[in-house]
Amino acid sequence: MVGELKHNKRWLVYVITYIFFFLFYWKVSPIMPFDTDDWYYMGYFRYPVPMWGDWNPTRILPEMMMPNVSLLAATVIFPVTGDYIGSMVIMYAAVMAVILTVLCVELHKLFDSITSSKIVSAGLTCLWICLHFTLLVNAYSDNTWLWSSITAACYFYYTIPAILNEIVVVYMLRKRNRISKRGWLFLAIMGYFGIFSNLFPAIILGAYAGIEFLFHISRIIVNKESNSIHINKNRINRNNTGLLTRVMKENSYNIYIIILFLISVYFEMYGGRASGFEGFDLIGTLKKLLDTVLAYNKIVICSCLIILFFAIYKYIKIRPSRNDYTNWIRILSMTFPVVLFLVLVCSKTGSWYIGRADVQLVILFFPLLAVFVFIANSLRDIEERPKQVCMLFLLAIVLNIIVLIPFNEKYYKPTNISLLNPEVCKKIDEDIVTQILDAENQGALEMELHVPKFTTDDNWPMATYSGGSVSRFPYTLWRHGLIDSGIYITVVPDEDKNIEFGIS
User: Fold this and answer.
1) What are 57-97's pLDDT values in tens digits?
2) Which residues on adjacent β-strands are paired with residue 492?
């Protein structure tokens, strides 16, 4: 009876967590499709295998997930609500809520497996959630948060793959490589899509697998059986063969991930998008990274240091075992390949990438996880002072809440590059749909699609190049069953639309 009650309480917490994330991404900061990339990938189709020479050869997960999720919204939610664009927002919010809830559940289980204190595991999970909404806050408006991105498509191309890869890593750390055959199959599928998603988030799994493999090799070398030193050629050969077999068996998943990652990097190097980048701005990227780190919210950093300093004191006092030490050190060491890889990639693709919230999410994952695992290890037995620890966590969370006190409707940046109000974006989207539906009802084979005029050369985010016989707008509407055939589109930037939607 007691166990059932605890189980029900746990699920109630999970449901509340899901509702919180869902409401946030539905109402507070809706993931509103708007620019021509959003429209394109809402209806895009690709095969789930790397395609040599493609624009992004191995970007499988987002290019399958976004169109299928969008199609589900159009066929399941839209018929109920009658709101086509609104159905996309609801579905995207539901997806974000699911994966973030799973991540938080896995984190809580990991901390719970390390510490015997429910206060510590719950406090660390709550603090993890808080700082992802507060660490990047440095103004009274237009802030970003770690679980954000700049467009709806970028959520699927950067943020969601990063979170899914984090889930796999946390799960593997919690299971300590003790995976059943069924679990291995599931992780193989997750690893495949995690690596073949986008190079930026893929490094999370790549770094984990690489460092785990190196640490495992070093442990085997250090703990090598004493009889392997006998000068016996046949025995040495047998030992070497057995050692290699053991390494391959115990690191099968890590080797699998490393191979996939190397394939992904090789394919992307010769992809269509990579050929469009020129130059290499290492200094600019490092400067942008430093500026971004220095802009982290100081109150939020202090909130973590409060717990960390107390954990260091307890760590020194309890003198933990070597395994506890290597656990968080191993996780922390995964930061170095991540930072090195992202600095090199951003130096080639554009230094500004390194300052994006969805890239900072990747950079900060391992150092934050290492610190939190260290705290969980240090505070694994605090029954003698539970109230003191509870007050420390409460203080840390309150400091994060203080950062959110000035919250207003413009506190966080909207999900579009033009920083337009989400409702304005929705009205523009609905106007585009109306124009195309009206043209089809009139039997038109071609039409002018009037959109707001923007200051860019190609009128991005409503790009003029998105027209033609296979235009992004009618193609997606056709895929979603709103129109029966394609229409030749000529995108016309129209200042009257700016006046209509109040765009200056």
Assistant:
1) 999 999 999 999 999 999 999 999 999 999 999 999 999 99
2) 450
Residue type at position 478: W
Q: What are the structure tokens assigned to 24, written together?
A: 């946030």
Q: Report pLDDT digits (tens) over 341-377.
A: 999 999 999 999 999 999 999 999 999 999 999 999 8
Over residues 412-445, the pLDDT tens digits come to: 999 999 999 999 999 999 999 999 999 999 999 9
Backbone φ/ψ region at 3: left (φ over 0), alpha (ψ -120 to 50), beta: alpha
Contact 494/453 with Cβ under 8 angstroms?
yes
C-alpha 440, offset from chain centre: 39
H or E element in which residue 103 lies: helix 84-114
Q: Is the pLDDT of residue 243 over 70?
A: no
H helix or E strand, kind and range, residue 450: strand 446-451
Nearest CA among 146, 147, 128 for reference residue 400: 128
**CA gyration radius for the chain?**
25
Residues 199-226: pLDDT tens digits? Answer: 999 999 999 999 999 988 887 776 664 4
Mapping DSSP onto H, E and C, the string for 28-85 reads HCCCCCCCHHHHHHHCCCCCCCCCCCCCCCCCHHHHHHHHHHHHHHHHHHHHHHCCHH
pTM (whole model) above 0.85: yes
Task: Assign 285 to helix, strand or coil.
Answer: helix
Q: Which residues contact 332 (CB under 8 A, 6 or more apart)?
A: 366, 367, 370
User: What are the C-alpha distances in Å from 60 to residues 48, 103, 231, 467?
Assistant: 6, 21, 52, 25
Q: Counting beta carbons within 10 angstroms of the beta carbon of residue 312, is it exposed (0 to 12), middle (13 to 18) or buried (19 or more)?
A: middle
